[in-house]
Amino acid sequence: MEYKRLRGVGVSPGISYGEILLTEEVVFTERKENIPAPAVRREIDRLHKAIERTKEQLTFIRGQVKEKIGEEHSFIFESHLMILEDKGLLSKLKDFIRNERVKAEWALTRVHESYIKIFQSISDEYFRQRISDLTDVLTKVYKNLKPGKTKKKDDGKEKILIAHDLLPSEAAVKLSRGNILGVATDMGGQTSHTAILARSLNIPAVVGLRNITREVQTGDFIIVDGTDGEVIINPPTAIRKEFTSKKKKYDDYYKELRKIAKLRSRTLDNYEFFPLANIELPEEVTKALSLGAEGIGLFRTEFIYLQNDTLPTEEDHFDIYSRLAKASHPHPVYIRTVDIGGEKSLPQLKIEKEPNPALGLRAIRLSLRDRNLFKTQVRAILRASFLRNIRVLVPMITEIEEVEEVKLIFKEVKKDLRKKKEDFDEDMPLGIMIEVPAAAAMTDILVKEVDFLSIGTNDLIQYYLAVDRSNEFVSYLYKPLHPSILRLLKYIIDTARKAKREITVCGEMAADPLSALVLMGFGLKSFSMNPIFIPRIKRTFRSVEYKTVRNIVQGTVGLRTAQEVEEHIIENILVKYPKAFLKGHV
Ligand code: PEP
Ligand code: MG
Known about the structure:
- 48% of the residues lie in helices and 13% in strands.
- It has helices at residues 40-69, 75-85, 87-100, 104-122, 125-145, 168-176, 193-201, 212-215, 237-262, 285-290, 302-306, 314-328, 364-369, 371-383, 400-419, 437-441, 443-446, 457-465, 483-498, 513-521, 534-542, 546-554, 562-576, and strands spanning 4-7, 9-12, 15-22, 159-163, 180-185, 205-207, 221-225, 230-233, 274-279, 296-300, 333-336, 390-394, 430-434, 452-455, 502-505, 526-529.
- Magnesium ion is lined by residues 395, 435, 456, 458-459.
């Protein structure tokens, strides 16, 4: 048994090892089998039966997946059932059998090929996704033409799943069974369905390995290191030992995080805080909640636009937002309207090249230029607010006129929805990002115009210190604890609290224990961050007393440098609460 190591993309952290389970691939037939005219009816009948059987299976699986891993992962089966309801597809298949006088297998093969050709010629990521759904469904129908024949049962033993590429429904079914310890595939990337699912089920996974299916054979033993993106085939004893201890370390760390996630979000003196999650896909909700998020504090919508070559339709938006709202319910979700433009350019938007993209036509500036684009998104957000847990957040506000225009647009869209008798949240809260220094300086005026504020420290620091947030040559100047930044943040938080408006910080600063303590000291309660950092922040906050933190933070007034601030906080916090940063920077 040959020892080999392969590198891929680690998409779900953790380590697992075991014997492999190779998925069987269903291959459409290459044989054209002609049938006599009287047999045509029988073939069409076989096709109908196979479709009915597939529908029953999909409905059953949908129920199972919903129960075992959550509703948002069961939507895929909804769309698969819809494919089977498609009248065009069914009549194509039947016509093919009738006109060519062939068996149903051949009809499925050829109709599948013809769809692939059409979709591929469109060369669009969205349609490519539809190909995999169509293949997924037609493969099932194909198998069901001869039920029982391909049933090579998984013996239920714990194994590492190896596949070329997992079809979305295959991934949901196989991974929800509970006997898959790890996953390794030839294809796939960070946002593939398998990756998202593996992450939310905590199954270590490495994808994009190119040819793992050709490198392994039944009986092989492999290690999947989802943290570092490596797969080791038939490791010698020394390597096995090394990974056993690496696995133990990771598992212990993870267990500790899990424990913290379930604990109350209160400081030692009972000061309540709210950890929220920053995410980009509705499928990330389950994991975020399991890590202790008490809502989605920032749903970045850029992903919806960057996914495809064409602009998303209102239904595309609505589908995503309503899934998001359902998966998070009853927790709140803050959907941010698109923050695109500048360097995150989209060819379909025809934005001219700009000399200073960070200061250019981005976010709300672009939305107010391309009103129809903006209205499409606003309509979808409003329509998805039927569960009453959505709030909308507008990025890059610079002046009050922009807020007024946004409010007018919301008014218009609402009027239209009312006319169409759509159910939506009439009082959906509207908030703005404070990330442009001019808006920060006007907080007292702006706050009266909206229901809440969210501070985008990533951009606010970049613009206030005039330091490009992604330029490594000046990164030494990018200091969240710079006294000037702290003065500004204190002013924004104080002003929002005085006006009795909710205020959140959703930049990276909220995820750093030291900076987050400073924000808490200013009286901040809502902290939105990448969900993996939530347990760490909870651990820090749960080991301190708010009153003392407030006093320590007050002591930073008058300090001259970021370094002085940092030293002051660390020294004073550690003297009183030695556990606050314990393993805090894991
Ligand atoms: C921010 O600017 O702090 C923020 C949260 O938004 P983004 O990182 O998406 O610009
Ligand atoms: Mg920003």
